[in-house]
Write a structure and sequence with these properties.
Length: 130
């Protein structure tokens, strides 16, 4: 994820990303910009649950093509929102945020991409081979 987008989420929602003296910077995002909006929206929804709902997101990263959000919370509602966000990422292009689907490259590399980004990915790969 672009550093500035990550910083924007950290600045907008420090309450979900830090606790007990931890700095928001401890939270790590490791995914494409296309999922930035999903994570931002998730934090916005978590904010509507009220201050008594304690959530701490320690990381959000791409694992085997899927968005995995690691969070500590005792709130069922928060847990549901987090699960929904992960599911939504399954059909959101990780690169640009358009509607996408899971693609696999020689059964090893899995990624959610829209058709355009998937095409671009291959173009780039062929350039590297030349
Ligand atoms: Zn795309």
């Amino acid at each position: 994820m672009e550093q500035c987008l990550e910083a924007e989420i950290l600045a907008a929602f420090p309450e979900f990303l830090s606790e007990d003296g931890d700095t928001p910077e401890d939270c790590s995002f490791d995914c494409g910009d296309g999922w930035y909006q999903l994570i931002y929206d998730l934090c916005s929804k978590l904010a509507t649950l009220g201050p008594e709902t304690r959530v701490r997101i320690s990381s959000a990263k791409e694992t085997l093509g899927a968005l995995r959000i690691s969070a500590q919370t005792e709130s069922e509602e928060a847990r549901t929102l987090i699960n929904d966000c992960e599911k939504q990422a399954g059909h959101t292009c990780e690169t640009c945020g358009d509607q996408g689907r899971m693609h696999s490259y020689i059964h090893e590399k899995l990624m959610v991409r829209c058709d355009t980004c998937w095409h671009n990915y291959f173009e780039k790969m062929w350039e590297t081979i030349d």
